[in-house]
Specification:
This protein is of the alpha/beta class. The protein has one domain: Rossmann fold (3-Layer(aba) Sandwich), CATH 3.40.50. It has a six-stranded parallel β-sheet, sandwiched between helices. α1 packs parallel to α3 and α4 packs across α5. The chain is globular and about 50 Å long. The mean pLDDT is about 95. GO terms for molecular function: flavin prenyltransferase activity. Belongs to the UbiX/PAD1 family. Its EC number is 2.5.1.129. This is Flavin prenyltransferase UbiX.
């Protein structure tokens, strides 16, 4: 495979700009083939939080788009090799479906494939506060091998605006896939200057 393949799932939680920014950063990097799945709730959230053009923009950024109902798509098979998958944002509904094997749509099925094939699965779990059911689902997907990465800003980087926060979180998620030196990377902490 001459380039890395990354699946990006956008579910219906608040924070849809993060999923869009992940796609933008991966597109800018080149040589990364993106496969996108947007849940119906994410369509609504993208339009509400970013604007009515946001779902189309996300699709334009991806190399391949898959209908969430198409459980026979290429990304539903373990034989379709990828570097991993990012779900940004990841609603608690989606996280729970992954945790408990409720494979009713392509987004959850593709995530399940990453786990069974021992590939990286990064879930930007978006909810607050959390109840015990949320925490148990997070623990369960972590035990299966997923990386639960709530979209928490790195305030020590002193972001100047929301766009900077979104970019930092998107880069951190991409960094967790360990795509190599040509992939976008988060800003590294260099220690306090004396």
């Amino acid at each position: 495979m001459s380039q890395s393949r990354v699946i990006v799932g956008i579910s219906g939680a608040s924070g849809a700009a993060i999923g869009l920014r992940v796609l933008e950063r991966l597109a800018e990097a080149g040589r990364i083939e993106t496969h996108l799945v947007i849940s119906p709730a994410a369509e609504r959230t993208l339009a509400a939080e970013i604007g009515p053009e946001a779902p189309a923009r996300a699709r334009d950024l991806a190399a391949h788009c898959h209908d969430h109902r198409d459980i026979g798509a290429s990304i539903a098979s373990g034989s379709f090799r990828t570097a991993g998958m990012i779900v940004a944002p990841c609603s608690m509904r989606t996280l729970s479906a992954i945790a408990y094997g409720q494979l009713g749509d392509l987004l959850v099925r593709a995530a399940d494939v990453q786990l069974k094939e021992r590939r990286r699965l990064v879930l930007l779990a978006r909810e607050s506060p959390l109840h015990l059911g949320h925490l148990r689902a997070m623990a369960q997907v972590t035990e299966y091998g997923a990386i639960v990465a709530p979209p928490v800003p790195a305030f020590y980087l002193r972001p100047g605006d929301i766009a900077a926060i979104v970019d930092q979180i998107a880069l951190r998620a991409i960094g967790l896939l360990d795509l190599g030196p040509d992939a976008p990377a988060p800003v590294e902490w260099r220690g306090e200057e004396s």
